[in-house]
Design brief:
With 205 residues, the protein is mainly alpha-helical. It has eight helices and five strands; from the N terminus they run βααβαβαββαααα. Strands 2-1-3 form a three-stranded parallel sheet. A two-stranded antiparallel sheet has the order 4-5.
């Protein structure tokens, strides 16, 4: 999809004369929510049309098939000539699916991965309530489709030991967990974000 007001660079590579089949999720999906939120951010036409959500009504003119979950979408992409689709980065890497470089807000084409993901996350301004979305992150090195993984807790628990255990779990995710994030297919958090989450975890009482 072309960005509103931008000129696409002409590819020097010839594309095959093959019909494109778009593979989307058949089930309600956070991946669909993040993907379509980005499409709405870069295209007023898409925002006024399908919009964003965990499930949407895709444009009828597109040649589309649907698969359940990441594995269903991946299987259809692999077995359908000319297919493109969207799946979680970690799953795409694990399944060895070719991934596309995308044009970001600064007009640069960035490949999905550790560098592009960290650059995107670093540009997020996190409010006090910690709820933040990155529909089209700034920065020439940012991959344009990124999101945080959410942890949701109550602020007050009747059991103080449970509250302490939850704070320790958050601490583990911020310390030891960050060391294995890339191996698990996730983007390690920027240091500034780690400290904000650590501070917010103290509200769990």
């Amino acid at each position: 999809m072309e960005r509103s007001g931008d000129r696409r660079r002409q590819s020097r590579r010839e594309l095959p004369d093959t019909d494109i089949t778009v593979v989307s999720r058949a089930d309600s999906s956070g991946t669909t929510f993040v993907f379509t939120k980005h499409l709405c951010a870069i295209s007023p036409e898409f925002k006024d049309g399908p919009g964003f959500g965990k499930t949407i009504n895709w444009p009828g003119a597109a040649k589309m098939v649907k698969g359940p979950k990441n594995d269903g979408v991946t299987a259809l992409i692999k077995q359908t000539p000319g297919a493109i689709g969207y799946i979680e980065y970690g799953y795409a890497r694990m399944a060895n699916v070719p991934m596309a470089s995308l044009q970001n807000k600064d007009g640069e084409y960035v490949a999905p991965g550790l560098a592009g993901g960290q650059a995107a996350l670093a540009h997020a301004e996190i409010p006090e309530n910690m709820i933040v979305w990155l529909p089209d992150p700034a920065g020439k090195d940012s991959y344009p489709i990124a999101t945080y993984t959410w942890m949701i807790f109550y602020k007050k628990y009747d059991d103080s030991q449970k509250a302490e255990a939850l704070r320790k779990m958050v601490g583990y995710c911020l310390d030891e967990g960050q060391k294995i994030a890339d191996k698990a297919g996730y983007i390690p958090l920027p240091a500034s974000v780690v400290e904000k989450v650590r501070k917010a975890s103290m509200n769990i009482q």
